[in-house]
Amino acid sequence: xxxxxxxxxxxxxxxxxxxxxxxxxxxxxxxxxxxxxxxxxxxxxxxxxxxxxxxxxxxxxxxxxxxxxxxxxxxxxxxxxxxxxxxxxxxxxxxxxxxxxxxxxxxxxxxxxxxxxxxxxxxxxxxxxxxxxxxxxxxxxxxxxxxxxxxxxxxxxxxxxxxxxxxxxxxxxxxxxxxxxxxxxxxxxxxxxxxxxxxxxxxxxxxxxxxxxxxxxxxxxxxxxxxxxxxxxxxxxxxxxxxxxxxxxxxxxxxxxxxxxxxxxxxxxxxxxxxxxxxxxxxxxxxxxxxxxxxxxxxxxxxxxxxxxxxxxxxxxxxxxxxxxxxxxxxxxxxxxxxxxxxxxxxxxxxxxxxxxxxxxxxxxxxxxxxxxxxxxxxxxxxxxxxxxxxxxxxxxxxxxxxxxxxxxxxxxxxxxxxxxxxxxxxxxxxxxxxxxxxxxxxxxxxxxxxxxxxxxxxxxxxxxxxxxxxxxxxxxxxxxxxxxxxxxxxxxxxxxxxxxxxxxxxxxxxxxxxxxxxxxxxxxxxxxxxxxxxxxxxxxxxxxxxxxxxxxxxxxxxxxxxxxxxxxxxxxxxxxxxxxxxxxxxxxxxxxxxxxxxxxxxxxxxxxxxxxxxxxxxxxxxxxxxxxxxxxxxxxxxxxxxxxxxxxxxxxxxxxxxxxxxxxxxxxxxxxxxxxxxxxxxxxxxxxxxxxxxxxxxxxxxxxxxxxxxxxxxxxxxxxxxxxxxxxxxxxxxxxxxxxxxxxxxxxxxxxxxxxxxxxxxxxxxxxxxxxxxxxxxxxxxxxxxxxxxxxxxxxxxxxxxxxxxxxxxxxxxxxxxxxxxxxxxxxxxxxxxxxxxxxxxxxxxxxxxxxxxxxxxxxxxxxxxxxxxxxxxxxxxxxxxxxxxxxxxxxxxxxxxxxxxxxxxxxxxxxxxxxxxxxxxxxxxxxxxxxxxxxxxxxxxxxxxxxxxxxxxxxxxxxxxxxxxxxxxxxxxxxxxx
Length: 980
Hints:
- By secondary structure, the protein is an alpha+beta fold.
- A hairpin with a 5-residue loop joins strand 25 and strand 26.
- Keywords: Cell outer membrane, Coiled coil, Ion transport, Lipoprotein, Membrane, Palmitate, Polysaccharide transport, Porin, Signal, Sugar transport, Transmembrane, Transmembrane beta strand, Transport.
């Protein structure tokens, strides 16, 4: 390391004396690690200053503070203000736009601009002086003026658009010149509008000049301490900003939180190490560090000195501070890695042996307990020593080897072991000497060993011979063989070939005698297949594993007459996997564990048979229900894919081929694999049994050939079904609806009532005791949830169409008034927020319903019926001067009722006026001098005068807007009928 440091400085430092001094400093401190001195220039894509400092520091350095303007765009800041968003103490001036809203005798909502004379001219009002007033003061003047002009009228004012001001920005900015910005803008906003400060400009000495004085803005204070200083001074029209060139700079490199290039305060003099470290955010780690100062001498040469006093002010323009911790190693640590629940470092003082490092509580469910690796550092070389470890011996206390500092125990997992029999590994063992291009380091290490030792134990031993007959998987390389590449060939050396008793035939490392075996020796066990006759129990059994096969052993004996099965084993399907030595193929024989345990079926076993039993939950996850809920579908697919990855693909295919679908009124509908012909009662039991609403007498069975028949499970429960069939359990017909209806108002017994299918309104009124004497059935209101949803969807669709029309007109460049666009958007917002009533027009008079049964409506769940008492009023709403409720008088005309409400407003559309009759029907009402038709207005009617769509003239949607205004008026009128 010393020689390397001297060579680095020989390339960069011009004087031999300086080189010798650095070497002497390094040699004087043998316990220290060498500081990260520059090794070669670092190319920077920023400014020339950044490139120069980066080359000197040996790491990329950026100028601090300029990222503040990194997201600056050419788009000017928005000036529209949301109504109510501006505080009342805002001082108005020429150019501000005020939204004035009147409600009452006079109603409108318009925008008015404060003119050059400082006045706000509102329609039909005297001019108001606005310039120089606060927004609250203007509101008071406006309210007083409106009250004097139109009694019973409320006035509201809010700032709709903020005026623009002009500020001149010059100096080192990307777009110097006059900037049009909001009156709320600050110095930072103006600089952003000018494209931000250029990297050649100063962030510490920005000058703000205006009539009456000047101020200096330091943007470092804003970014380092969060202090705004002068950066948030509100600008005025005519202000000037000047960004001078960049001042003196220093750089900080090394393990600090914010390495970079920093501008010195103007006129502040040199800084100390402590001050520079604070500028850089502080050190990344506590402890002593070496402080190196790289400066520029009088002749331009670079000088270096070690700073002992962190408080000495030695750093000025062009200096570089390099911070290097004296030590960066870790002491007293050992590590536990791999398939454990909490991998990472452990303290050597508390864990001194293998038995203290590893316990059963540390192991993950995927840990492999026959082989692990202890990795230890070596004193003479950088290579690390690998030694096999038997995890079971460690857990049982037989292996109590002492650990040393830097030791790491790697616990392998099933994925690591499976990779030993993967196709890339087998290909290398068969003779290929070049790993794939994207091979992991473990495969590269194996290829190098095989190429270096063509006559070695791996290239010519039993592993290579076994690889010729094995078929490997395409599993990806585990991370462990990337972290510790030499572990892959070591695990292969200690592997045995297991063809039975394991999920997959292949190489399985063992650590027998590991205490005395090093990385150069191999496993002592011969890699052979056991020759004694045997069979194997796999999966959901109490004691899985290999058993000796005696003559005449049957499947029922192997399962101990069912006692070997776990409680939640899947009862309808198990699989015997048999290897036929004559044809050299595997066959899969399904069986029913339920039938075997009951003694109704049995099968003789052969040598090498593998008996697969499955958990019910695993089968349900593998064969997903075809009508699964949407929210659980993704989770089911994940569990299914995980289980399919653990099982042999052929086993999964056999399970899928033998599935019977069970649908309808069972507790757990879905697919259920069966071994062969299975009784219906067993199939229904596997599906959780019949649900409470099931009707077992009308089940429907569809066979794989397409034949459909009706089945009575109470009599035909022993009837058998086979793979591919489908069974549906029909529910009983429901006499009652799932939810009740409510009847309120003028009935003798109001409340909620359960209804049957096909029940009508007249029967509900009769069940409620009939109408009371002062009931008014002509004004009955029936609200329905399905109708409410339909109206809500209609409102949302109309709002989208209105906004789409506005967008198209703006894109076409059509001359549309800004106030018309604002009103249309306000109308779209009203549509989105409108709460529909869902009213259905019905006839509720029992006498009429008896004579006209065709008018008697059918009820739906959650219907709400309200029978009002006989009203004595007629309501007038909409665009009238004083919406009111007038007394009903027979013979009174619509004009009479409208006159009692003060007559129409200026925004009224009297030609589209209509009546909302008591039963909810709407009828147009013509009000003109040539119309002599007499309209009969019954009590309880609402006379509605809608808003005139003329403000929307010029929009393509003017006709549609008229219809929308009428619909909103009808909705508001209907709600008023319900709530009064």
